[in-house]
Structures are given as C-alpha cells and as structure tokens.
C-alpha cells in the first residue's frame, strides 16, 4: 500500500465556496446541518494510493473564526466539460449530464486527478468567509487558497 505523504507530489486548490440551506425547519432537530462547503482540488501523485483518507475542508473567515468539516457529504472525481459563457461557480458546483464526474472510490490514481469535495461544516452559525481562506487536507498533505464565493441562501 502506498503512503499518502510519499505518494502525493503536489496538490492545487482550484475552487472553494460555501453556503447554507435556503429553507430550514422552524424548530430544527439537534445536529441539523445548515452550513456546507465545496472545494475542487487537483492532486498529482507518483503512484496509485489506495484507501486514501477522505479530504477535509477548513474555512477561515475574515474575523478570526474557523469552520471545520463536520462530515464529508461526498467526494467525486470531477471531470466536467467547460460550457462557453458558463460562470465558474456553475462550472464547479453543478454536474453536467455530458460530464464524466463520478463518485471517488478512495484511490488516488497515478498522475493527475481532480476531486470535488462536499462537506457539512461544524457550525450552525451564518458564516462570512468570502475573501477568507480555504484549506483542503488529504492525510498529512494540505493546500491553502482563497474562498471564491458563496451560493445564495
């Protein structure tokens, strides 16, 4: 089995955004998830890495506030066609019926792969992280970048 720390040659954050639910119950049950984040990373590996740990996302707001992953909702191999005049938010957040995006099986293949990670954040407060920082971690490998935006709530 390949070691994640030794197998990952590089990782780049391509996109990061967050948002909350549009509608919620009047009296939400305990642990009701309201805040979510999506990140797309490019991972380059020297060898196949089976059973890689699930990616985690942390958002840092303009105020000294930290929003960590509560749970990973999904991880996909992101392979979407770019549609002319499509905005970057639509491109990275949506799945096109012509695309080849599919669930990630936990293996980082040799070479380059794009992963789209969707997480529930460990907060129930409204977050204000636009222009903040996003960190994605896979095992001991991490990459930082800026938050690109938020979707309407």
- Tell me the fraction of residues in β-strands, as a range: 35-45%
What coarse outline follows from CA principal-axis ratios? globular
- The total beta strand count reads 9
| Tally of separate helices | 2
Q: How many structural domains does the protein architecture include?
A: 1
Q: How far apart, in Å, are the first and last alpha carbons? A: 43 Å
- The secondary structure category is mainly beta
Average pLDDT reading:
85
Order of helices and strands: HEEEEHEEEEE
Largest sheet: 9 strands, mixed
Radius of gyration: 16 Å
Helix content: under 10%
Low-pLDDT segments, ≥5 res = none
Structure description:
The chain has 153 residues and is mainly beta. Helices cover 7% and strands 44% of the residues. The protein is built from two helices and nine strands. Strands 1, 2, 3, 4, 5, 6, 7, 8 and 9 form a nine-stranded mixed sheet that branches. A hairpin with a 5-residue loop joins β3 and β4. The protein is globular.
What labels would you give this structure?
9 strands; 9-stranded mixed β-sheet; 153 residues; mainly beta
Task: Present the secondary structure layout.
Layout: H1 4-7, E1 8-20, E2 35-45, E3 56-60, E4 66-77, H2 88-93, E5 102-103, E6 111-121, E7 133-138, E8 141-146, E9 149-150
Parallel strand pairs: 1-9
Antiparallel strand pairs: 1-2, 2-6, 3-4, 3-7, 4-5, 4-6, 7-8
């Amino acid at each position: 089995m390949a070691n994640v720390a030794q197998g990952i040659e590089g990782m780049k954050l391509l996109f990061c955004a967050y948002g909350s639910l549009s509608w919620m119950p009047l009296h939400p049950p305990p642990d009701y998830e309201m805040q979510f984040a999506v990140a797309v990373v490019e991972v380059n590996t020297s060898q196949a890495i089976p059973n890689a740990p699930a990616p985690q996302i942390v958002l840092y707001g303009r105020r000294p506030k930290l929003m960590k992953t509560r749970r990973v909702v999904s991880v996909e191999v992101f392979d979407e066609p770019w549609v002319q005049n499509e905005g970057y938010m639509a491109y990275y957040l949506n799945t096109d019926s012509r695309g080849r995006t599919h669930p990630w099986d936990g293996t980082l293949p040799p070479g380059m792969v794009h992963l789209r990670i969707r997480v529930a954040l460990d907060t129930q407060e409204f977050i204000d992280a636009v222009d903040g920082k996003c960190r994605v971690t896979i095992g001991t490998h991490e990459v930082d970048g800026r938050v690109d935006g938020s979707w309407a709530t």
